[in-house]
Amino acid sequence: MTTQDFIGKENFNIRTQTVSESCPSNIALIKYWGKYADQIPANPSISYTLNHCKTNTSMEFIANETFSVQTFLAGNEEVKFAEKIEKYFRNIEQYLPWILKGKYVIRTENTFPHSSGIASSASGFGAIAKCLMALDASFTGKKSEEESLRKASFLARLGSGSACRSLYNGLVVWGKTDEVSGSSDLFGVQYPDAEIHEVFKNFNDWVLLIHEGQKSVSSSVGHGLMKTNPYAERRFQEARENFVPMKEILKKGDMESFIKLVEHEALTLHAMMMMSEPAFILMKTGTLEVINKIWDFRRETKLPLFFTLDAGANVHLLFPGGAEDQIKSFIEAELLQYTQKNGVVKDVMRF
Ligand code: PMV
User: How do residues 124-156 score in pLDDT, each as one tens digit?
Assistant: First the structure.
């Protein structure tokens, strides 16, 4: 499929109405870091979709008013966010030709703590894209579930790249790779269920809130710095190559190799930040303490507790479901002390 396949029909019938949608967050296992124009990723990525960390959004469209956007986050008006959404809507007009023909009031709420450092852009843009597709169905006629989700994923990507993976449950791939049939740079696709060992279908992700609040460098600045990073091409190549073992690992249920690959990806992401010019570091002391404690724990117990990181200081603690009591006790007793306010968000993967 190409971008042309997503161009919207000029034939529409708009009316005032409100739609509500919900979309979960996701956590990448093979990371996307670096992009080209129009939100085309420099390498393919794969993520787990979360279950509890979600954004709930209601979108009121008032037809035939001058185009404007008003946004409320947990009841508080957010002017900066409204400006961002206004720009985004202008940018996607060719895909939804009715989009600038009215006024919007968008109310959005996250189920995870505000300013926890958990990325809300993936679930946020996912929910907005779903709302837009609900309005589009009503203005231009209903589409198949598959077509509508694909276009929602395409639109979400144009808001925030990783958001395109949040439209599907389970493991989701974004970015063209020969290892996953149907994969595309334009939207996310679900990784085939039959190719995933049972052990990976019941998984925990406990997010340790090491540092709550604003990040010192935003994702968009971070992606931009990959353009001049001398290690970027090697990194993109490595991410592409990592799909080969990942496929085998997922099929066989090879936990040991999974842990090695996922932790390597997380550390590579942060290594890229340190190798940028100017360099930046988003990990905090607590992040490093936790990583070392996890490694000690694994060495001593051989239990499958491991980590990944997104573009921030928080640590995503990953461990399979079942036989996890010892892991949970360890987290509570040994790792919570590194959080700012005993903050931990206990999530599971959504299958
Ligand atoms: O979607 P963005 O622009 O916020 O970038 C997200 C990048 C990472 O979270 C670090 C990795 C990923 O693949 O989600």
Answer: 999 999 999 999 999 999 899 999 999 999 999
Q: Count the residues in the chain.
A: 351
Q: pTM, whole model, 2 decimals?
A: 0.97
Q: Identify whether 301 is part of a domain.
A: yes
CA gap 61, 64 in Å, rounded: 9
Which pLDDT value is given to residue 27?
97
| Angle, CA of 328, 332 and 338, to the nearest 5° | 130
pLDDT at residue 214 is higher than 80: no
Predicted local confidence at residue 322, as pLDDT: 83
Query: Measuring from atom 9 of ligand 1, which residue has the nearest CA?
Result: 310
Residues 154 and 213 in one domain: no
Using CB atoms within 10 A of its CB, is residue 80 exposed (0-12), middle (13-18) or buried (19+)?
exposed
Q: Are residues 156 and 268 in the same domain?
A: no
CATH number of the structural domain spanning residue 245: 3.30.70.890
Place of tokens 């395109």: 164
pLDDT per residue as tens digits for the range 248-302: 999 999 999 999 999 999 999 999 999 999 999 999 999 999 999 999 999 999 9
Max Cα distance, the chain (Å): 65
73/218 same-domain check = no
Residue 204 sits in the same domain as residue 115: no
For position 115, what pLDDT does the model report? 67
Q: Which ligand 1 atom minimizes the distance to the CA of 311?
A: 10
Neighbouring-strand partners of residue 313: none
CA of 269 to the centre of ligand 1 (A): 10
Do 46 and 30 touch, CB atoms closer than 8 A? yes
Q: How far is the CA of 181 from the centre of ligand 1 (A)?
A: 22
